[in-house]
Specification:
Number of strands of chain A: 7
Structural class of chain A: alpha/beta
CATH architecture of chain A: 3-Layer(aba) Sandwich
Order of helices and strands of chain A: EHEEHEHEHEHHE
Largest interface: A-B, 43 and 43 residues
Mean pLDDT of chain A: 97
Low-confidence stretches of chain A: none
CATH class of chain A: Alpha Beta
Number of helices of chain A: 6
Oligomer: homodimer
Largest sheet of chain A: 7 strands, parallel
Strand order of the largest sheet of chain A: 3-2-1-4-5-6-7
Chain lengths: 199, 199
């Protein structure tokens, strides 16, 4: 398959790219600040330009989402808006604009995360964004069939424990390679409206 | 208790107001377009003005949320933004601004809805908003203790079946009086971070 991968240069995106390439797929690697396809999907106009540039694809996979971390009382309305634009609207626009552009039985695979079910302090904007995307995935799935849409919702990565482990005391981490296989499952499988929880 | 109720003139708000008043509470009824306290909480500045006007309260209850309904492919980015402002940011701001203003052991009770778990066609913005608020509630709960926060997540109201029943084929409705009791449970009980699902 020809697969458009957003956030391809990130820690997760790199693992997903490797897993999809190993399965023989052609990966079109897009990102905000590196690679050939430099587009920031927080801006709906750039999402449109990206789709125009790559032409028809069989699947769209997102490994990109940017949210601020602060205690609720230190947040400003603008911080929640930034989380909405950076992880929710950005991924919704991939779907909304993509429905008319991807293959008739193509798929969308979005990224969320464990914080919407098991929050940590300072994670209210991240949790909000993840919960929004997961509910959107369930709702969009019943409208866009036979196109499919799923979300990948991992806990902290084993490879990120040195940096983030202190925020997840006692929480079993997940290997990036295992998260990447959830993308393979979503893209090559037949499920839709599913949240693949890796935690 | 002295309870600030947002959306007090709506179908749900009216039932909540009656239930809380019957329990002996003093209800301060706020709304966008009726009553003495006319404030639109979709605007964070009006939320601030509302809190300034009412002074200290023991609990804040929301029965207000405005979202657009359209198929995914007919939505515009602005429709999802409107849902975010009208149901997500509006209720988050009630909490964020309220933490420093309500009683030390006071509570927030927000409104979500069944569509984030059991969507219907055209409900992707509503689902997104409900999922966002429910995840926010779980995340905020672990930060604001001993203050508490819960969400009420009802299915279609028995009293709304004539208008909306066709969108919920085979779905058992819930009586408004029963939904109102979930507000009582949230406000007078000791739970926090709970989503009371009435469906």
């Amino acid at each position: 398959m020809k697969i458009l991968l957003i956030g391809a240069a990130g820690k997760l995106g790199t693992a997903v790219n490797a897993a999809l390439t190993a399965r023989g797929h052609e990966v079109l690697a897009a990102g905000r600040s590196s690679g050939d396809l430099r587009y920031d999907i927080a801006d709906p106009a750039q999402t449109s330009a990206l789709y125009d540039r790559v032409g028809p694809v069989d699947a769209v996979a997102s490994a990109a989402g940017d949210v601020p971390y602060k205690p609720v009382v230190d947040m400003a309305p603008e911080n929640y808006e930034a989380a909405f634009r950076g992880k929710v609207l950005s991924q919704i626009e991939l779907v909304r604009q993509g429905v008319s552009r991807i293959a008739e039985r193509g798929s969308f695979t979005l990224i969320t995360g464990v914080l919407c079910r098991d929050p940590i302090p300072t994670s209210s904007a991240a949790a909000m964004a993840n919960g929004a995307v997961e509910a959107f995935v369930r709702a969009a799935a019943i409208e866009i069939a036979p196109q499919r849409i799923n979300a990948i919702s991992p806990t902290v990565f084993t490879e990120s424990l040195a940096k983030y482990g202190d925020f997840f005391p006692g929480v079993p981490p997940v290997d990036l390679a295992q998260v990447a296989q959830a993308y393979v499952r979503s893209i090559e499988g037949a499920h839709t409206g599913r949240i693949y929880e890796l935690s």
